[in-house]
Each structure stands twice: as C-alpha cells, then as structure tokens.
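G., the chain you wanted modeled:
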Amino acid sequence: MNKPKVMVIPVRTWQTCGRRGLLGMFFAFLVSACPLTERAAERTVSPAVIEPRLQICPLDLAEIRSITPLGNLNPRGGHVFPTDHICLDYGHRAGLPVRAPASGRVFAIRGQIRDDFKIEVQVDKRFSYYVGHVLPVKGLNVGSTVESGEIIAHASGRSMLDLGCVDSEVTLKGFVNPGRYPGLTLHCVSPLKLYDDPLRSQLYSKVVRDSTDKDGRIDYDIAGRLVGNWFLEGLSVADSSRGSPQTWAKQLAFAYDVHQPNARCVSIGGTVAPAGLYRLSPASPDPADISVKSGLVRLVLTISEPREADSRPRKPTSAVGILLVQMLTPIRVKVEFFPSRNEEEKIGFTVSASVYER
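Predicted structure as tokens:
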C-alpha cells in the first residue's frame, strides 16, 4: 500500500459527535493554525471534571483479550518511560477493523517503527485522540473527516493496538522538567475515563492491574528524589522526546510496574546497562526515598521472565547485578551497573559510570 503523507491542508469541513455548527468550524480553524501540543504547553490549570468524549471502542469488544492501562514499560520496544497510551491486546490478529472512537478531523498520520501507522484525530479545540499500530484504509489522509464508528484502519498485527487521548486543559504535574516532553505526554488522559457506561465498565473489566485504580499513571517524578524519568547528560531538551533508538538508549526511569503497581522497576534504555525492564529486590530502598542525603546507594536488580502475552504480568527472577546510584544534586544522578555481583561485595564507581539529569 502507498504510505500516507503527513501534511497540513486548509480546513474545509468539520464534523464532531455533537451539535457544533459554525462554532465547530471555528475551532477547527484554531487547531489548524496552532497545533495542540504548542497551544497547550503553557497551561497549568486542570478541570475538575473530564467529560465523556468517546463513543466507540476501536476494536470489537469480543476481540480484546485484555487491556494494559497507562504507564506500561517496554524499553526494548521504545517505551523506556511509562506509556502515555493504553494498549489493547487482540492476539496480534492482523486485519481486524479499527473504528473511530469519536468524530473529528485527521490532523496527522505518522509512520511507526514496525512499519505501521499512528492516526491522530482532533475532535474539538480541547480534545484529540490517536490509534497506533494500524494500517489506514485507502483514501484516509490528513484533513479527512471521520465519523464515530467509521472504519478508519485495520490492525497491523505487529503490536498491541495503542489508544491515546489528549486534553489540552489537563496538564500532568509529575514531571520535574516539562520541557522535555511532547504535548501527547503532558496532556495525556486515560481513554477509559472518557467512555460512558455500560461500555466504560466493560472496558475496565478487561484491564490487567492489581489495583482499584484501573487507569494507570505515567508521571512519577518527585523533585529532589530518584524516582521518575532521567536523561543522559548531554541529551538536549529538543532531542529528549524524539522517538528514535538513539534517544531511547539515553533514557532511564525508576517507576512502578503497570500490572503490579507495588513492584518497583528500573527501566533502562541502554548506555548504563543492557536495555530491559528490571525489578528491585525487596531489600532495595524505594527510589522515592532516595535523595542527595542518601549518598551512595546499592540497588539489587532482578530481571523479569518473558510473558506468554504482551498484557500478562511479569514474574521476577534471581538477582542479575547491582546498580550503584548517587544523587549528585536534586537534578543530577550518577549511575553504574555491575552485572553478576555478590550482593555483599564492596564496589564503587569507576570511569564507566554515567550521569543522568532531569
């Protein structure tokens, strides 16, 4: 198939899921003149209520085996940091129809690393959504208007289906340096909250997460503490959110497992250790408690067994090494990995240590 081109075109029509009329066309003009991610970057006030905006599940409910909520960690797949979208596990059955969750205008179609695509749709001035790892239907282009429930793509079968939602009036507070993140991340909201019952309850019932909170979380930074996201020293702010293997290799996160949120994880993109998702041993301190005052800290890492399906919880294995960490300042940390070391062995930093910053 011919790959769709990402381009900006004049707004001709605008259709949404409610009665918008000329006001909807005016909103569309604003969106085309000023991208959502730039427009919303300086907003800090979040609304008290997030209104339902989605009407249709992108996949038939019967085809969804399980749902991974916000915050999945998959460093080898490009998700060193917690994901700003949910994942629908449909068993990698290529060709399943993907429907528009709400009416709107396609403002971007972007290629992804598995030779499939992400389709981004603007619903109104405030809200947009996207579906990822899909193959767009013939004739769908940037500027196309879509109706709620319309088939806009087919599942690629190369990954779980991504569903992400962006609300320009919501800004997450758990990022120490917001300038390093795109608008899709800063203004991310859980898609599951945006459905009305009974569909909302049906979707929540498929979420794999050992918590009453089925929406998940992505922003774990605490100022002056180790927990959260880190960038290799020297990585510019402008390059921090580039979706490339070169950037992922320079990212590091201390977060929590999306399926078992009490499990503390270290997500490594590369550089300091082989890319992968590691867990901290029960004896290791919580990254949320580690600060400059903690000095040199030893974290015992275990690695997780492979899962039978993308959405099934991981099981920890025996220790694979020691990660030395020391916060040099509230926004800089020194780290070094020592594989296959005795947990009691005395070790210190060498010339191979790396420094990360917020």
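The chain has two domains: 21-204, 228-357.

Shout if anything looks off.
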